[in-house]
Amino acid sequence: MMNINATGLDYKELNEALRQVHNNCTITNCLGQRFIAAGVSDKTLKISGIPGNALGAYLNGAKIEVMGNAQDAVGDTMNDGTIVIHGNVGDAVGYAMRGGHIYVQGNAGYRSGIHMKAYKEKQPAIIIGGRAGSFLGEYQAGGTIIVLGLNGDDKPIVGNFPSTGMHGGKMFLRSDCKGIHFPHQVHARPATEEDLNEISHYLRRFCFYFGHELNELLDHPFTVVTPDSNNPYRQMYVAN
Amino acid sequence: MKDHFIYPEFEVVRNDNRCIQCRVCERQCANEVHSFDPERGIMLSDETKCVNCQRCVSLCPTRALKIVKSDCRLRENANWADDTIKEIYKQANSGGVLLSSMGNPKPLPVYWDKILINASQVTNPPIDPLREPMETKVFLGKKPEKIKRNEDGELVTETTPQLELSMPVMFSAMSYGSISYNAHASLARAATELGICYNTGEGGLHEDFYIYGPNTVVQVASGRFGVHKDYLEAAAAVEIKMGQGAKPGIGGHLPGAKIVGDVSKTRMIPEGSDAISPAPHHDIYSIEDLRQLVYSLKEATEYKKPVIVKVAAVHNIAAIASGIARSGADIIAIDGFRGGTGAAPTRIRDNVGIPIELALASVDQRLRDEGIRNNVSLVVGGSVRSAADVVKAVALGADAVYVATAALLAMGCHLCRTCQSGKCNWGIATQRPELVKRLNPDMGSRRLVNLMDAWRHEIKELMGGMGINSIESLRGNRLMLRGVGLTDKELEILGISHAGE
Q: Cβ of A234 and B292 within 8 Å?
């Protein structure tokens, strides 16, 4: 497999080197280079070190695995492919994501899955192993956001103001969500077996990537959050 | 809920001597104003539904119809104008935020009309554009700081990507969804024939229009609708929409009812689901963050496309533009407060933002003062209505202008300002198939090409009169402008002298 040693390369040089690669590739000594694999459709990429912001922006089918943490805006406006992070991610992971899957082993920052959307076969998903920061799924318009809270502590699974402006898609939080305040435009209820069946393939993939057992994930109540169609997020207008 | 406090704004006047009861008016009116009473054998009209779009008037074969403003008025009051009172009735009736369409109609200053253009007399000859070549072509993008030569002494001619336009005009952003398929087809075809660009707006690019890619600017807005690799690659340039002149500081909300069929497919959201564009880009809180989006787009398109950043003209626009010019953007587009819209809250449209003429002059000056004017090209919009406005904008410092309302008018819009209803009788601001087909793209594109051809001739004539034979020599040439009836402060901001000086 081809290797790119990122030492001394800026993001432009690194991406240029990446464009010359035609299938699988590793990047070693990655140190904050931004925009890695922006818009890439046809590669499998393994990164050691820390990629910078906007990793896999507009990703179009490639598979990226990061053997460590990643920074802000992972998978920004991603269209297809898979990103697997063996660590934590920064803010706005999967911003306006419209296809593909992002698996995060650890925690995610603010605004995860903001304005994620879906259309027919394009059904994006973000699976976060740890906790998510505030504004999780803000303006969510489609797709699936799953937060598992596997940190083994008592801190809340999500920060403040989850699902503000949510008007589509589904959110699954592996918690009874006591004490978490949801806005009145959404509906939060305990997950049924049917709900969990819907996400079982995501959970299986998560277990495969990060070495968990499915039973371990399912031995805990899940809360499902969906938009409340009777009380939509919209302004009341009068034609003038 | 019908508001009985409000008397209809318009009157439908039917000349019974001319009316032949052909019922064309009835068939043409999506607002259902006209109807036929078979018992009495006469045409009736319900003025409460009339928006004065002039469709029935234009198509009545015997010219039996006219729409006039009703003279049934509330008691005159210089403080409480009719519109102000009616807006209160509407809100008291509904509890809703007032929503309007198209540009600000208030009598606020139009600086274009207070600026006059110079001409050559005696000491320098005017140029006859019919006899001599005149260059209206412009290139938008970052310009080199200095001339570079390689080791062999040859000129290095590679530049960062440039947008080539045959004249300094582009059709500005109108999304598929806010306007119809046939309207987009007309714009795309006309732009291609003219060698200029049209702009997709934030609703994505219909698959049928990818062939017009070399003349297409694609938009990336906060909702990121329809944004993907192929969309970015199809375009001649990518525009990041930060703001819009008609509604600075707020986002967009296309109701689910308009997300039907191909609009849903192009935006890539399910039919009937609301399309919400949040007010901010939630990953942009600083110039550094903007730089990140600019460069993520450049990386995704391999540095082959210029990136435009579009902002609304607001109070600190010069400082904002200075930041954008340092963000890596190739082009800054500024939209003034008279700019049009498919729908905007009335209070925002009529009260937020500043006139484009002042914004343009102050931005151009600021970028020159800071020595970064060549970092970016400037495109301005927000009610550029004629070739004279184009020439004035270029002389104030613009590289090109954006026009949308003028383009809509060319396609048949009668500026009734009810786009938000989705019932455009001219087939422009609607998704109803029976209305969309009223706009024939052959005719729509032909009229757009005619309009721009006419403007191009006028631009050449105005330039020729000044003794200037190239747009490049007109840009920022404020000595060619004089103000009339402007205060010292206004003249200072515009950077022009008063007429007679």
A: no
- Enter the ipTM: 0.94
The tens place of each residue's pLDDT in chain A, 240 residues long, gives 899 999 999 999 999 999 999 889 999 999 999 999 999 998 999 999 999 999 999 999 999 999 999 999 999 999 999 999 999 999 999 999 999 999 999 999 999 999 999 999 999 999 999 999 999 999 999 999 999 999 988 899 999 999 999 999 999 999 999 999 999 999 999 999 999 999 999 999 999 999 999 999 999 999 999 998 776 777 788 888
Alpha-carbon dihedral angle through residues A214, A220, A226, A230, given to the nearest 10 degrees: 150
- Cβ <8 Å between B93 and A240: no
Please, what is the angle between helix B441-465 and helix B387-396, to 10°?
50
Residue A88 C-alpha, separation from nearest chain B C-alpha, in angstroms: 18
DSSP secondary structure letters along B209-234: GGGGGGGEEEEE-TT-TT--HHHHHH
β-strands B97-100, A237-239 pairing = parallel
| A148-158: pLDDT as tens digits | 999 988 899 99
Instruction: At B38, list the tokens.
Output: 């078979």
Q: Which of A76, A79, A92 sits opposite B229 (nearest CB)?
A: A79
User: pLDDT tens-digit profile of B137-181?
Assistant: 999 999 998 889 999 999 998 899 999 999 999 999 999 999 999
Residue B208 and residue B198: Cα distance in Å, rounded?
15
Residues of B in contact with A238 (CB under 8 A): 90-91, 93-99
Measured in angstroms, the CA of B99 and the nearest CA of chain A are apart by 5
The distance of B223 to chain A (nearest Cα, Å) reads 7
Domains and CATH numbers, chain B: 10-96 (3.30.70.20), 138-496 (3.20.20.70)
pTM of the model: 0.95
CATH number of A88-227: 2.160.20.60
Q: Which residues of A touch B269 (CB under 8 A)?
A: 117-119, 141-142, 168
